[in-house]
Amino acid sequence: MNFLDMLRTAERQNGSMLCVGLDPEPTRFPANLAGDAGKIYDFCAAIVDATADLVSAFKPQIAYFAAHRAEDQLERLMAHMRRAAPGVPVILDAKRGDIGSTAEQYAREAFERYGADAVTLSPFMGFDSIQPYLKYHGKGAFLLCRTSNPGGDDFQSQRLASVAGEPLLYEHIAQLAQGPWNLNGQLGLVVGATYPAEIARVRALAPTLPLLIPGVGAQGGDALATVRAGRRDNGPIIVNSSRAILYASSGADFVQAARQEAVKTRDLLQAARSNLG
User: Fold this and answer.
1) What are the CA-CA distances from residue 136 to residues 2, 77, 89, 104 (Å)?
2) What percent of the chain is helix, strand and coil (3-state, nearest 5)?
3) What amino acid positions are annotated as catalytic residues?
4) Residue 52 — φ and ψ, nearest 5°?
5) CATH code, domain carrying 200
6) What is the pLDDT of residues 73-124, one digit of tens each?
7) How many domains, the chain?
8) Bridging pattern class, strands 118-121 and 187-191
9) How far apart are CA 129 and CA 34, in angstroms?
């Protein structure tokens, strides 16, 4: 199956729009693992096992592994997710953005080394920085569009006088992703849950693209507003929560607490979807 097929199947089978972000911080691990970067795999694998039947995707953030020289643990974790949750797609959160042969190497890293089903990318350098990823047919690529951080306004909300209609930059990215850049139907967009009005605007411009929506949970995004703004029958959303689930407890019950938080968030999102009518 290609990425979109996997996503739709996982959403249907698990009754979920929830994505669990895997951002391991050893200083926040429970007491028996605390401070030990060699236990990153153990911690993340336990979270995966506890939530595999509750999610539509997993999203490991590569920096949290690379900072601790734990890329080998990330490789092990990717293999574990394929065994423990074979129908759940994995989005490698790397936010790569480069051109030519360098982009080809980043694509190879994401899809061949780690075996990701999709990857996050920065579109700042233009289409030739995206194209190498699209050569991997069936894989997904999520372009940063309207991100959840306040500093996103520095560029994303600037108006483009050189483009017909003078759209904001994030609106232009959405139009390109829905249109001429989406050669094989592989693109999606990253939009932050902290900006529901902008989610609605992106959805209007890109009615069928999958939206990866971080910011629910620790960043304070409203799950109900997110679903209302972004979810459409032919336009799936992937709502990410990381820290609120990973660190729901700092005790020996961290696995059970993570599962309980994931159940709560999944059910909240599903209730919002049911209320859409």
Assistant:
1) 10, 22, 15, 10
2) 45, 15, 35
3) 95
4) -60, -30
5) 3.20.20.70
6) 999 999 999 999 999 999 999 999 999 999 999 999 999 999 999 999 999 9
7) 1
8) unpaired
9) 39
Measured in whole angstroms, the distance separating CA 56 from the mean position of its chain's CA atoms is: 10
Closest CA to 215 of 238, 236, 249: 238
The parent domain of residue 204 ranges over 3-274
Q: How many CB atoms lie within 10 A of CB 182?
A: 19
DSSP letter, residue 205? H
- pLDDT tens across 131-155, in order? 999 999 999 999 999 988 888 888 8
Q: Which of 16, 10, 80 is nearest to 43 (CA)?
A: 80
Upper half-sphere CA count for residue 67 (Cβ side, 13 Å): 10
Residue 205, CA distances (Å) to 39, 145, 149 in order: 43, 12, 21
CB 262 within 8 A of CB 245: yes
pTM over 0.85: yes
How many CA atoms, within 13 angstroms, populate the side-chain half-sphere of residue 257? 14
Query: Any idea how long the chain is?
Result: 277
